[in-house]
């Protein structure tokens, strides 16, 4: 499964600035990290009311990953924010 295309297809229609959406997938053995970078003003739309949207997205990614035998971790960052490295 192409997680980058999946997340982009799901999120682009709901964002005010879909051109700023960037999705990175980092593989490490049987684990995938799906990193979503979006405009700060769009983060609320991605998170959703009470976190429902991001929770649903994480659930879909988790189930899709399990079908492929992968553990999927999905995280949201500001567009210019860099993810922290492990151990920091």
TrEMBL record:
Top-level division of the source organism's lineage: Bacteria
Record's keyword terms, sorted: Cytoplasm, RNA-binding
Species this protein is from: Mesoterricola silvestris
PANTHER family in alphabetical order: RNA-BINDING PROTEIN KHPA, UPF0109 PROTEIN SCO5592
This protein's record includes keyword Transcription: no
Protein name: Uncharacterized protein
Molecular function as annotated in GO: RNA binding
InterPro entries from the UniProt entry: KH_dom-like_a/b, KhpA
Signal peptide start and end residues: none
């Amino acid at each position: 499964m192409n997680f980058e295309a999946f997340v982009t297809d799901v999120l682009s229609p709901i964002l005010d600035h879909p051109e700023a959406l960037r999705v990175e997938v980092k593989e490490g053995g049987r684990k995938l990290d799906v990193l979503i970078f979006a405009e700060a003003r769009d983060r609320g739309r991605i998170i959703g009311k009470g976190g429902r949207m991001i929770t649903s997205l994480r659930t879909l990614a988790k189930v899709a990953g399990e079908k492929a035998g992968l553990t999927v971790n999905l995280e949201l960052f500001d567009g210019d924010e860099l993810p922290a490295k492990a151990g920091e």
